[in-house]
Amino acid sequence: MTAFLELDGLSVRLGRRDVLRDLRGTLAGRAIGLLGPNGAGKTTLLHTLLGFFRPSSGTARLAGLDVVKESREVRRTVGYMPENDAFVAGISGVRYVAMFAELSGLPRAEALERAHEALFSVGLGEVRYRNLETYSLGMKQLAKLAQAIAHGPRVLFLDEPTNGLDPPARQRMIRLVKEIREAGEIRVVLSSHLLRDVEECCDEVLILKDGKIAALCDLEAERRANRRLVELEAAGGNGDFAEALASLGCTVAPGIRRRLKVVLPEGVGPRELFRLAGEKGVQLRHLAYQRDSLEEIFLRAMENGG
Amino acid sequence: MTVRARRFRPFEGTPTSTLTRLLVLPRYAWKEAFQAKLVTGAFTASFLAPVGALVLVWLKHNIAALANTPLAGGIPLPIDEKFFGWLLVTQSYFAFALTLFVGPSLVSPDLVNGALPLYFSRPLSRWQYVLGKLLVLAALLSAITWVPLLVVFVLQASLAEGAWIAEHAGIAGSILLGSLLLVLFLSLASMAVSAWVRNRAVARGLLIGLGIVPAVFGQALNGILDVEWGGVLNLGLAWGRVLEGLFGIPVRAGIPLGGAWASLLTATALSLLLLRRKLRAFEVVR
Questions:
Q1: How close is the nearest chain B Cα to the Cα of A190, in Å?
Q2: How far apart are CA A242 and CA A240, in angstroms?
Q3: Nearest to A75 by CA among B281, B195, B113, B110
Q4: Considering CB atoms only, which of A72, A113, A183 is closest to B8?
């Protein structure tokens, strides 16, 4: 996969504080998560990519565009959903979305058509003629998402998109982000301090701590690797069974409570394990994939990184 | 195809030009502004004087229409610099009223509602945003100042003899110069004040105060230091002195013409500086 976000020694100083320090790395995922505790620099990174802040040193490339030298082109490419309230007073949902689509460079008629589409796609179709000020918090979040996608950006920046949402509204937002990602036309950069949001939506994660990269993690690769690592508990002759597993090409190591940790080779799955257990007259009482969750990755990064 | 179809598709067409994008801001703002009856009323009322002037000029050159009226002998009002000067004075009051209604609604709601990051995440610079918002008020004020006054001038020039045009040709330039100064000052000052206080009502109060507080301060300076230049702080007086210089209307401001121009231009420049400071996607807390 080609590089989508390249960070080349990016540092940002705001006032007397170094908010981002020498960020380096390349990300290529369809959906990139920016993860980190509050104040880690996630929003500053998004704002720098948007050209709101000028790097004090280094640069970054987004979708092949230099964020400093080609800032205007970057902003034409990006749809941005900010973290805080961001609406225009006194206008309806559809006018709000259409106006920002026009400001992004869409002709008037196309902007209006896409505004209707975007509001329907986020589930605000029925309330699109209502004044924005009468929207609930959840509706405002969805309206912000609609204005970010209406002009057909190639990249979508979502800054804490589930902030302040109740569980059903959060689920809906996550579902929408997944749909956008699955549609394949828009690359997503999602900034959040909520691990679950990032885990559900993203395939690559950049973890920030105190303005530095604490970890860069390909979640998809982690998931693939995790699918190869299983934990077994067998009753009736573990010694023989372990040898039989090794003969299948598995790497076997003893785990806690008489369990076995097994790395499966290509082409070997649970079906083969059950077949082997049957042949050896062994009962498999426990079989689970190892799950190195994002939470564990994050906690490790917070301990070691930064 | 229904609009309900969920489609996330990139825009493949040609993006609109910078000018077209710039004009999006005033187009939306005008629609909002004219939803207020007060704005529509003030805007309509501001055409009374120019329409009256047009009728007057026409009647002055069509005495036959005045037959059987007390003015059958002709209208004893000269159409000259002073006539246009007083007309601009009248229009400047309407311009100020319209500024009070429209100006504070231009940028303060965007600041209060956090909309600036949305504007600046588009291919739109801060200065283009300011220009777009400036156009909202500048176009409205132009429509009630130099545009109708030039129409009156053109009518007078077309009806009068060649000698009148030769003698009063400078009026058109004075109308343009004076009006543009007024439009620029009022538009930028109202935007700057509303960006500063972020509240429409307070901004309106402050705009009125802008005409009073520095004037009182200037008066106090005059009294304490026994000088006359304190009057340059009185922006209303400075505007009058500029008109006196352009049209020869007697204002007796007691301040030098250069000082009056400098006063208004400095206030305009300060407004620009304030806007530059306040209009950012995000404020950096140092």
A1: 16
A2: 5
A3: B281
A4: A183
CB-based contact (8 Å) between A99 and chain B? yes
- Does the pLDDT value for residue A238 go beyond 70? no
Low-confidence ranges of chain B (pLDDT < 70): 1-7, 253, 283-286
For CA atoms A251, A255, A260, A261, the dihedral sign is: negative
Question: How deeply is A201 buried, as exposed, middle or buried, from its count of CB atoms within 10 A (0-12, 13-18, 19+)?
Answer: buried
What pTM was computed for the model?
0.84
β partners of residue A231? A261, A288
CB atoms within 10 A of CB B177: 15
A103 or A3: whose pLDDT is higher? A103
Per-residue pLDDT tens over the stretch A122-140: 999 999 999 999 999 899 9
Instruction: Write down the pLDDT at residue A300.
Output: 79
Return the DSSP state at B14: P
A278's CB contacts (< 8 A; 6+ apart) are none
Tokens at A211, concatenated: 């303005």
Task: Compare CB distances from B282 to A47, A90, A107 and report the shortest one's residue.
Answer: A47
Binary contact (A121, B124; C-beta < 8 A): no
